[in-house]
Structure formats: C-alpha cells, structure tokens
Amino acid sequence: MDTLSAVKVAIVTESFPPRVDGVANSVVRVVEQLTARGHDVLVIAPGGPGDAVGLGPSGPGGVPVELVHGVSLPFYRSFHVGLPTRRVTVALRDFRPDVVHLASPLVLGLSGLAAARRLGIPAVAVFQTDVAGFARCYGVRGADPLIWWWLRRLHRRADRTLAPSTPVLAELERRGVPRLAFWGRGVDRRRFHPGHRSPQLRARLAPDGEVVVGYVGRLAMEKRPALLARIADLPGMRLVVVGDGPERERLERLLPDATFTGFRTGAELSELVASLDVFVHTGADETFCQAIQEALASGVPVVAPASGGPVDLVRPGVNGLLYAPGDAGQLRASVSALVEHATLRHWMSERAVESVRGRDWESVCDELIRHYREIAGIAAPDTPPGRQDARARQTEDAV
Fold this sequence. Notes:
The protein is of the alpha/beta class.
C-alpha cells in the first residue's frame, strides 16, 4: 500500500484477548484486516488480574497493545471494562492517530473519547453491547434510564456511531443518538463452511442417526440458555451444547441427556458447527450475534428470537425460523418443524450459505475504512486531491 493512503488507527476497546467475547473477536478481526492492508494500529485495552499497565504483549499482526487497569461490572461479572485513566491521552498523543476507533465504549471508551476530543482527533464509536438488556437479565431493575443516559451522552460526543444491525440502528435513533451509520460484521467463510461437516463426529453425537440440534455460545444468564429445556425432549433429536460459562453446572442438571462439549475454538469449533443439523439461539439481547452468522456460513438452518441482530440475519422460511423472544412454545414448535422435515432442512441449508455471501471480513472492513476516511477527511487512494466525500466535511459539533 502507498504510505500516503494509509490510515493510523487507535482502537480503544473494553475487551481484548485473552478474553473471549464478541467485542474482543471483532477487534481482533479488524486489527488483522488493517495490518494486512498496511495501516498502522495501536490497541488500548483493559488488562486482566496481575497484568501490569503500560505497553503489553503484541496483539495480532504484532500491533502494540497498551494495557490499562480494568474491573468487572457488579451486575455482570463476566463483562470486564477498563477504568478511566489519563494513560489513554498519553498513548494517543504519542501515537498520533488519524482516527480513534471506540469498540463498544462504556467506561474506558469515555476516556478514549475525551482524549480524542482533547487532542482534536475524530472518533468512531461502534455500538456492540446491549448493556441495558444485560442489566435486566441480571435483575437490575429500573436501570434503563440511567444506562441510556450514559450511552447517549457518550455517543453524542463521537463523530459517528456505527450500529451492527437495523433494529439497533432504529433503537439508537429513537434514543436520540446522532450521526448514525450501519456497519455489520464479517464471517470467515473458510473457517465456517459446510465442508467441515464430519460424519465421524456426527456418529459420536447422534449414534442412532438422530437430528443434531445445537447451541453455541456463552453459558450465561443473558443468553437465556435455560430455554433449551423446552426442546430437550423432542423425539428424534440430540441436543449439543457448545460453550462454557457460569450457568454450565445448572444447565447440566437441567439437561441431563444433552452433550456438553465445553469451550471450543479453531478447527474443533468449525467441525462442530458444520456438523449440526439445526442451530438454536436463545438470547434476546443480541446487537448482532456472530454465532448465527457462523452457523449460516456452515450451511446450518437457524432458529432464533425475533429481536436485535438475528432479525437481519435470519430470513424466516428461507434460512431458518424466528420466534417471539422468550416464547418457549414458539421455540419448541420452530425446532420441531425442522427436526421433522429433512427436505426443508436441506433446502434451508443451501439458502443459509447463500445468505452470507459478500459478508467476508475483507468486504466489511472496506466499509469500516471508508468510515474512518470520511470522518478524518482523508481521501481514498484513487480519489483526486480536493474530491473527498462531502460527508467527511459535515461532522457536527458534539451535543
């Protein structure tokens, strides 16, 4: 890449490996794409217990990672956020980025945003976590107004907020968040592909040739995996639960006949997902749901709640079925319909693969880089001087 066309990007994220969640995964994919294209990247992220603050181990592609102190939310212990710190300002001043990327900003993200404004650097905020929805799941009542006040205050200061799905885009608009745009997520169609389907694995999971129905995701209250109990006794199927989390022991008691694989990644995960016949998702607070997209890329029809990100991903009657969020009866009926009709499953399997064409990370990150260039006023490599997109000159003052 011509160095004159490269963009320097500082990513301030509330989550980063070795943590495993949707935010961390998306940031890693973005870093991989940016560095592969010759862009310069710095990551600022919360460290774990015992990690020293400061410049830590290199991230994907050898990018520098600045670690800051972090803490878990009291109502959501598995959600770790960075604490506000002036170290963010120092790191940004030294790096001198063209744009700051705020990944699911909440606490550390506010530091990143304040530092960016102090230094005159434009900022893109990527909305990714339904904190209000999670708070409700964990019994924190009456917190919605306060959480949305905080999120609105934060996002109003960003030059652009990117939403991962059309329902989230509409919700943010309704909540008064300005300067919105859509930005989805990519899927690795080499890792998630029907070719990874394994007859040997299927024989172990369903020795009598049953239909294999699987859930893949974190076993935590906000994902509502207890709903799986309503489908566990369907005739002619075997239930497989892939993942780990604080709800695992309770679920193993609730689902004694299900196969629990624990956390899986890499080739094992690719094989497991592709070897399912039906993918079931139970969480109703997903802003996108990458696990659904990975199942579709693997040729697996999906049953999911009709809310948030799944609404964009699942086309009812084409690549899967949607049910009313939390409605165990509709969930059971939807899964039963696919278990009983092999021809419908096979037809949907083909449509599932077709539905994710063009959603690779390369294409998705092309769009993200376009957003970077627009808010920073940087011309694309093939754009003559003085012909930058007019939208790059229309950034509003923060409210």
